[in-house]
Amino acid sequence: MDLPLESALNAPGMIVDGSGRMAGRSLGEWNAAYARVESYFHALRIRNRLLLGRLVLHVLKRAMDRAPLQPELSATELAAAEMDRVVTEWFAEILEQPPTGTDQMLSTRGRLALLLADMPGKWQEQFLRAGPWPAEFVKAMRQVYLRAGPDFQLSQMAPRPLHLGPITTLTNFSRLPAARMAFVWVSFALVLVLIFVFTH
User: Is residue 84 part of a domain?
Assistant: First the structure.
């Protein structure tokens, strides 16, 4: 990924056209995309500003290359998709894991491995670099990746009847015949009338 800063800035997609747009999107859109990618790398604790700028420009360059092929997507959506793709491809290489079919799991566990191996503190300059990488860095990443969590497994759960507890006895009361219910209410009304007559 070692893309010189000058060549990244002068890449065809990065040039502003006569209408003030880059790769068919406004500068405001690309600015929002830049902020989104930068925030993502900040969350991964990339603090070196020069490295951060180069990584963001690399992702935006890839997003701009894709922009003409997907005009329905905003610059931020393109940048977010490319950012995830770049990071997942790098995890696949360094962890020797297939990137297809398990992208989401690889991305999630890979990010956790970065933090557990303290990549930002010890090997920040290795982030998204093409190999070869230092042996201790690769070893640390692979060890913590294996501990980052087991693969999800699908399980079958048989449906069980729902037990509502004491409330079921209250609902059984509504099954009384209509005549019996009427008798209960009439008796109750008579008791009230008798109480009123004797007290007045």
Answer: yes
